[in-house]
């Protein structure tokens, strides 16, 4: 994404494997809860023009027992927190761009961890689009760009990462135009 945007734009990646929107993970630890780290991330990088939020895949794990609607509500909570913070330019709130994660497949070594996740993941984009609309935020559905690697049904291969980077660069540029 950074290489596709103008050189004077800075892209800061704050991804964390296993991060959920707002739930503590009883197996992997409470540090995986995005709500616990959100404000520290926002404050450490201020001023921020735009926050791209792509969460929801790890919330699909069977251990959480969540519906797609519950997951969207968790993401909505984070959007509301971002829009209330003062980490944007001139102590305003940054803009938000929601990215719907790629739908999962229940295959491979992670199929038991994500049992029941496939149909929920397919329902998530429409629910996240509604969240973006309610909060006047941008939205991009990455399911229109790539699919998960069929080996484990969750992760993305190098080609998918490159395609997402290009699509996100376009979405970010469109968001500011």
Topology (elements, then pairings):
Blueprint: H1 34-44, E1 50-53, H2 68-84, E2 95-100, H3 117-134, E3 138-141, H4 158-176
Parallel strand pairs: 1-2, 2-3
Helix pairs in contact: 1-2, 2-3
Describe it for me?
- With 177 residues, the chain is mainly α.
- It has a single domain (2-176), classed as Rossmann fold.
- The protein has 4 helices and 3 strands, in the order αβαβαβα.
- It has a 3-stranded parallel sheet with strand order 1-2-3, sandwiched between helices.
- Strand 2, helix 3 (117-134) and strand 3 form a beta-alpha-beta unit.
- Helix 1 packs parallel to helix 2 (68-84) and helix 2 packs parallel to helix 3.
- The longest helix is centred in the C-terminal third of the chain and has 19 residues, at 158-176.
- The mean pLDDT is 97.
Brief descriptors of the model:
three-stranded parallel sheet, mainly alpha, 177 residues, globular, Rossmann fold
């Amino acid at each position: 994404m950074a290489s596709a945007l103008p050189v004077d734009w800075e892209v800061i990646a704050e991804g964390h494997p296993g991060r959920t929107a707002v739930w503590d993970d009883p197996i992997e630890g409470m540090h995986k809860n995005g709500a616990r780290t959100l404000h520290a991330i926002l404050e450490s990088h201020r001023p921020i023009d735009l926050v791209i939020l792509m969460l929801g895949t790890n919330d699909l794990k069977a251990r959480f027992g969540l519906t797609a609607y519950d997951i969207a509500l968790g993401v909505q909570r984070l959007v509301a927190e971002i829009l209330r913070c003062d980490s944007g330019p001139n102590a305003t709130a940054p803009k938000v761009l929601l990215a719907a994660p790629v739908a999962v497949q229940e295959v491979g070594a992670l199929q038991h961890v994500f049992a029941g996740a496939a149909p929920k993941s397919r329902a998530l984009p429409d629910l996240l689009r509604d969240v973006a609309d309610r909060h006047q935020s941008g939205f991009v559905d990455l399911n229109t760009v790539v699919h998960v690697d069929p080996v484990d049904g969750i992760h993305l291969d190098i080609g998918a990462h490159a395609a997402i980077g290009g699509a996100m660069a376009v979405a970010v540029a469109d968001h500011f135009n």
